[in-house]
Design brief:
Chain lengths: ~160, ~160, ~160, ~160, ~160, ~160, ~160, ~160
């Protein structure tokens, strides 16, 4: 990636769109370059499918739970248990962490009845020792494009360190 | 939303694409209906922009941190503090929770030096009392489309409860 | 429920009485309406038996304990264990919660010797892994009628949302 | 209280009714005695008003939260803070405890939006340092009459110790 | 116990002596009464043997540890485990508590090597799940006679409540 | 101290008495030696006053609390705060510890009402940040003479290391 | 660094010596090469002074404490507080960590009296909120040369990743 | 050790060198005495091999983790488990502690991939129940020579207590 790539990726985030015309307007990079670069970024696997962004709340998935999971400690357990957790209805993110908790999960649920179903699904996984969930009162940020989490300057200095 | 909408939303998740042709192939719903429904779902705000999916790791954002934040307890504090947290470079998700911790954050960083920068950015927010971060060893799941987190049957019974 | 029902339910709480005469005095709703509505609320199961309120302290049950219970994690365990907990002498409330603790219990006991008996009763339930109890120094509120926990305005806006 | 009183109190619990006829049927104690004793128990303040029992769920108060509260440590603080907590809409029980947590609260709420209102009401109490709430998944027991929490034998041996 | 008994018991604490002469000097109670009362208090088991007070530090037992013990949860376990703990060399006090920890122990040891021996003795008790010990930096108070922990007025009002 | 001293100190513990005759019977050490040694141990401050042992329970002090105290962290605070804690009615032992908690206290109280008084006395000490108390269900051991906590062999090897 | 450098560094660890002769014997690398490489490693700052290894226990520093420190949260605080901690007598290692605790310290002390001095030195640092120390019972490993912590194969594959 | 020894040991720390000439310059102790004393200190095992100091960061071991380990509680377990922990690649220090955690470990790793390898190595040790690791953001102090952790006055008063 060079500076142009980063400016294009950032523009995709800012615009919430991958339209070459709009990226050119935003960045001043000629449209043919934008075309070429987008193709290259897809070939390199940095950007993937162009998909619709889902509005969780409007789609009826407005209840978010964060769950800590402790599992039986065994050789290679974090892979097998982590996969089982990921297959449970409603579980959206599964992180295996370094700290006190084995896994941290984010789930998006449809209704309060689903909370009990989720807890029962955890109870049905043999390797799980204990879970502790907390209810999200307000989601203050959940950004699909991580380039939106950064100033353009920070992206430049961090992804192009040789430019310092 | 009715059954057709849910099948279309689920197909978008499965295919990783919003192409009407492919949705018709996947669901058997006539293409003109798919077109009309997609337009309707966008008007209702259930689906939003069609954007490129970013591969975090390949884009150089392969280090994930989960941070618990405790802030000074004050009238309306969770909104003002939550917004400040969301503006820090690298912070991708900000949840205000019911439990012991005030905020839970997910951040995607580029390098180990950024960890210290993130910690210093937290230190610069006056209202923060303390933070505790843990390093994600493996991200076992991080699904952009929450409809992919569900079986089609579950979606049907939960989003169309009147059909029971 | 409509506004009249809520005003009647709130009056029952305020007066500590279900007497139609007194409810009429309190609310200005005609006595025949009060009669009819009380009957309807009973048919709908919203109000149940008219029972004496017990003064715990004077009845000799002046010692209150709050107990956290952790149980063996197993499929469906929260129902079977929860029922066993509810059958123990002195256990008054049994909550299965989302957080770190499996169950939270409130017990009303008669004497200090009963504390040891309660702990021994917990020890006799096989599925229990651990308990932690704390002694209530002062019960500052324990309201039998939850409508007394609300202002009449709050009840109106929350139970009649369509009126907003 | 003597044995007859305890049998009457227990019968009120079992029957969910204070009807002298039914108490006589249940206990075999002559109706005139039941009348006299009920009057005496009321004069002694052991039983209070005869009130309708509210079905929380049907009355629209189906969401239960348990909250731990830590407050600023100051001379006499537990009384002033405890009273403020009891005045917050939805707070049903307030216990000042011996353990790690200053107060434990049980609240019955009407809807998920009320959770945020409750948290904001806590934020508005100056003396509160921190709160941690957990969501009740299932209420397995919540008995209005504590005599129902006991076997008749236990009540006899504990409330009439001189009979041992 | 009446007022005279309490004044005598308190004087024993203040003087660190059970000498009737000195108690008479301290309290103004006639010596013959003191004699008679001491005999009565011994017969009632309120005071026991007259023994030498040991100065822990000078006797070479200057290292104090406080240990929390968690044991396997089983029917009647607190008695059997508690007794085993009390038999370990150096363990001076064993409390079975209501809270999070099963047992709290105070031990007086002779040297740092004994710390390891104590930990190994705990490891040898099968029913113990885990221990956590902390080292006492300074013992600010350790009073053999609990009457010395009270003002005379407090003793009077609390042990003679009928006098209020 | 030499071997004879240790055997005498242990005998005092075993017998619950400092009577030279009984110590001679127990140890076989000639009475004149016992006399001389006891005098020497007193001169060296190893044994102090000969005092009556109090039976806590029979003396009306049957309720034991263990309290953790956290105080404001300041230069030399542990001495000033520790002394204030020791002066509170009912506080029997005050330990300043190395671990997470600043002070650990053992208190012997007369009645449940005193629990609230003790908590209020803690609230009145300005430097205290927080306390957490737990109720002792059973005191399984509380030995006034620490030599009773040891086998005679252990005492010999530990207090006379040069003999190894 | 290349393979020869790693083999030399590992040999220094294994032998506990930087003698070129012995390194040649251990590795089979010609002595002149060893000489040249050692000089180069010193110029690059990878190896520093050749110093005597201290035997902590024999040098009278046999008591090890591990301390967690929480400090006032402020802009840049971890540098200023960390330096103050490092200047306290006996503090050997100071780590600023990502987790729940701000700093983790390892200290080597000479005697039990020094524990109290260390605690008092912490109390004298204004920015410190709280400390919690634990006593090391046994140091099972404390390796001055980190190359001794690795198999030679692991060193090769990890430090020479391009060779994979 | 006498005063001269301590001054020599401290000089070695200050200079980062064991050169007799430089020690003489620093301390004013005649060179022949320095020679003799160094030899004596080595014979007594107080100083050991003269080895190169490794610069962790420059040698490619710049990632430090601190790990808490809880193991199955069993007779003598701390020795067997502690040794197994010490043999894991990258583990540099292993402490068996008195507190809540069984072992505290310091590890120096080469890269982020090694974190997962380390966690897997822990998972492969049967006796381990759970681990919790935290990432060191900044190492503010890590002193190879503990005499450098002390003022010369402190060393004198503590190691030569008879001189007070």
């Amino acid at each position: 990636m060079d500076e142009k790539d980063i400016r294009i990726l950032k523009a995709i985030g800012t615009l919430g769109s991958g339209s070459p015309d709009r990226i050119t307007d935003e960045t001043g990079i000629p449209k043919s370059t934008v075309h070429y670069r987008l193709k290259k970024l897809q070939e390199d696997g940095i950007i993937e499918n162009e998909v619709f962004d889902i509005n969780f709340k409007k789609a009826g998935l407005g209840l978010t739970l964060i769950t800590e999971v402790w599992a039986e400690y065994d050789s290679g357990y974090h892979k097998t248990v982590g996969e089982k957790l990921g297959e449970i209805n409603g579980v959206n993110q599964v992180y295996f962490t370094l700290g006190d908790t084995d896994f941290i999960l984010v789930s998006h649920l449809m209704s309060r009845e689903m909370v009990e179903e989720l807890i029962e699904a955890f109870e049905d996984v043999d390797e799980i020792d204990r879970t502790s969930s907390t209810f999200v009162i307000t989601t203050l940020k959940n950004e699909p494009n991580p380039f939106n989490d950064y100033d353009i300057e920070k992206l430049m200095t961090k992804l192009l360190p040789e430019m310092d």
